[in-house]
From TrEMBL:
Catalytic activity: N-acetyl-L-glutamate 5-semialdehyde + phosphate + NADP(+) = N-acetyl-L-glutamyl 5-phosphate + NADPH + H(+)
Upper classification of the organism: Bacteria, Pseudomonadati, Bacteroidota, Flavobacteriia, Flavobacteriales
Cellular component, GO annotation: cytoplasm
UniProt family annotation: Belongs to the NAGSA dehydrogenase family. Type 1 subfamily.
Pfam family, any one: Semialdhyde_dhC_1
InterPro entries in the cross-refs: AGPR (IPR050085), AGPR_AS (IPR023013), AGPR_dimerisation_dom (IPR058924), AGPR_type-1 (IPR000706), NAD(P)-bd_dom_sf (IPR036291), Semialdehyde_DH_NAD-bd (IPR000534)
Protein name: N-acetyl-gamma-glutamyl-phosphate reductase
Residue ranges of domain Semialdehyde dehydrogenase NAD-binding in the record: 3-122
Organism expressing this protein natively: Antarcticibacterium flavum
Parts forming coiled coils: none
Matches recorded under HAMAP family: ArgC_type1
Length: 320
């Protein structure tokens, strides 16, 4: 059994990880580290687990765990790993932004659809961001064929869980309910990792990426619409996308109109293509806490340990 630990066990992404790993046939939850909840029952925070587990939050880590998931606030993973050492055999999967941009570190960017082989050989993974996953999967088939030449326009909306558990003016129910707003227009923190992936597949990529993120009045899910200039037919575009994702475990090109109930509570990303004159419109949908975070982290763990990529992740959408 794989002995797994979670750092920062009280947040939304940690809660999803706990739910998945408790049911994973090859994983034993070894410790759940939380400075704010140490000694308290896990089911007291993640109350959907009442009656399912007697685990409590820990004040110490096991440095010899087989895999450790970092579910810390952005900027805290680097500090944590400087202060806490793990064995050479311990794989680390970071769900923050800290290691997503390639540079002077050993973390592989964990988007399985483009980096599967690297992930399989890696000991450290930087798990992609939720918006970055939805937008990259929508556009990477074009980049892989050198077809992003014109400006890219992306409008995407995410649920309230995308902001984490900490309260702010824009996360209170009274603000979110019956409300909608844009934020961080053209300067969202996920832009750098999206462009990095584009450049990986299309080294001459230099087109403008115009991204407008929005806050929705629902709990979870991302719905993104992306469009750019495209001269070929919709038939050719569909073949290009289906060929690119033919071996993908969770990314599917479909013809149906997309909405969140098709993907929430699953690890799927669904894509729909439409052609309007000389523009290609790609709609993408996923669950920001699963394919956009914890589900993808487990997908990466499965690849790192040589398991079936979808093990423990055959989750069904809650359609009604």
């Amino acid at each position: 059994m794989i002995k797994a630990g979670i750092i920062g066990g009280a947040g939304y992404t940690a809660g999803e990880l706990i739910r998945i790993l408790l049911r994973h046939p090859e994983v034993e939850l070894n410790f759940l580290y939380s400075t704010s909840q140490a000694g308290k029952p896990v089911a007291g925070i993640h109350q959907d687990l009442l009656g399912e587990t007697e685990l409590v939050f820990d004040s110490e880590v096991n440095p010899d765990a087989d895999v450790v998931f970092l579910c810390l606030g952005h900027g805290n993973s680097v500090k944590f790993l400087k202060e806490n050492k793990f064995s050479e055999k311990t794989r680390i999967i970071d769900l923050s932004t800290d290691y997503r941009i390639s540079g002077s570190h050993s973390f592989v960017y964990g988007l399985p659809e483009v980096n599967r082989k690297k992930i399989q050989e890696a000991s450290h993974i930087a798990n992609p961001g939720c918006f970055a996953t939805a937008i990259s999967l929508a556009l990477l088939p074009l980049a892989a064929n050198g077809l992003i030449k014109d400006e890219l326009h992306v409008n995407a909306v995410t649920g309230a869980t995308g902001a984490g558990t900490s309260l702010s003016d824009t996360t209170h129910f009274t603000w979110r309910d019956n409300n909608f707003s844009a934020y961080k227009a053209f300067e969202h923190q996920h832009l750098a990792e999206i462009k990095q992936s584009f450049n990986q597949l299309q080294p001459d990529f230099s087109a403008e990426l115009n991204f407008i993120p929005n806050r929705g009045n629902f709990s979870r899910g991302i719905h993104a619409t992306s469009y750019t200039g495209y001269g070929a037919s919709i038939k050719e575009a569909t073949k290009l996308y289906k060929d690119f994702y033919k071996d993908a475990a969770f990314t599917f090109v479909v013809e149906e109109e997309l909405h969140l109930k098709q993907v929430v509570n699953t690890n799927k990303c669904l894509l729909r293509l439409q052609k309007f004159n000389n523009k290609l419109l790609i709609t993408s949908t996923l669950d920001n806490l699963l394919k956009g975070a914890s589900g993808q982290a487990v997908q990466n763990m499965n690849l790192m340990f040589g398991l079936e990529e979808d093990m423990g992740l055959k989750l069904k959408a809650s359609y009604f």
